[in-house]
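Form 7-S
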Amino acid sequence: MRFDKFTIKSREALVDAQERAEQAGHPEVRPMHLLEALLGQEGGVVAPILQKMNISSTQALEADIKRQLARMPRVSGGQVDFSSALTDVIRQAQKEASNLKDEYTSTEHLLLAMVQSKREGERE
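Output:
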């Protein structure tokens, strides 16, 4: 994966997702961590996009994400890596950027990739 071809905001979201997983003691970073990071991103575009999609309350979505993350197994110590599902999301986001003729992979591409993975039935 070429992270040099990611926007600053998308790189920040990936780092934030990893930090959230580490702080929670989760064994891997999953797409749910990334979605939580994207929703909480100051000046980000994901929350406004979701609101335009008639998701009335991103707060309710964030609360649901927190509940799901709280049910994840915990470990102590060790390296926290990206899950295979998150790696797939990142690769799909890069494809979305390429298909849209965008030079960089942005947070919008990450969101599109997460929606795509859910449509295809991928699990967290």
